[in-house]
UniProtKB/TrEMBL annotation:
Protein EC: 2.1.1.77
Class of enzymatic activity (EC top level): transferase
Keyword Repressor in annotation: no
NCBIfam families, A to Z: pimt (TIGR00080)
Organism: Penicillium argentinense
Gene Ontology biological-process entries: methylation
Catalytic reactions on record: [protein]-L-isoaspartate + S-adenosyl-L-methionine = [protein]-L-isoaspartate alpha-methyl ester + S-adenosyl-L-homocysteine
Main location: cytoplasm
Annotated Gene Ontology cellular component terms: cytoplasm
Coiled-coil region: none
Protein name in the entry: Protein-L-isoaspartate O-methyltransferase
Record-linked PROSITE patterns: PCMT (PS01279)
Amino acid sequence: MAWYCSGSTNTELVENLFKGGLIKDVRVKDAMLGVDRAHYSPSRPYSDSPQPIGHGATISAPHMHGHACEYLIDYLGAGSRVLDIGSGSGYLTHVLANLVTGPGTPDQGQVIGIDHITELVDLAKTNMEKSQDGRQLLESGKVKFIKADGRLGWKEGAPYDAIHVGAAAETLHPVLIEQLRAPGRLFIPVESESDGSMLGRMGGQYIWVVDKREDGSVHKEKVFQVSYVPLTDAPR
Ligand code: SAH
């Protein structure tokens, strides 16, 4: 499936993802059309596959970026506050910013991208500076990239309408749920814990969608299997 959805230009890639049903929401499509992946992916930018960006990290496949936005879309309005943990290349941070910042909206949204590797924090900024609207997002403070351990979230900017995690966590970190607004939603890949049985050992990673409802109650749903690089300690 992924192979068929690649393109030779950014527009072709996004249109193919839409035609293939991998992106369904027009707002997500428009937000992705607004960011040239060539500014973020050093190799094969219009291929629907993950690509290495150095430091053991990858820019996720375009369809995964699309899925993440679609699961979060109801929490991504003009003025929403978003945390993107494991921001890596900065691509998804830019797409999320397109979804929450309308030009001239008095109530401005903000996206904070967090990575624990200094070089990748710098890379994300450099990538975003390649376009005029990317430069504006940085200059206006609508997008900020911060070096920190994303497993702790970023308390200073909380509460968030939406939190995206771009690397697989060992557990569903409760601190991230604490930093959600009510209502708010967390999208996070989590390593499934082995229960010691043959089946348990096969484990794997799954996306979890965690909702904090208006009354503060928390609802967790395991939605599909994935393969992300792990959320780890910072390299020394
Ligand atoms: N959404 C990014 C994914 C990058 S790969 C993209 O599509 O470009 C996952 C990223 O998570 C890497 O950049 C890695 O450095 C980062 N990461 C891993 N563990 C982390 C941690 N504990 N805190 C913050 N970032 C982390």
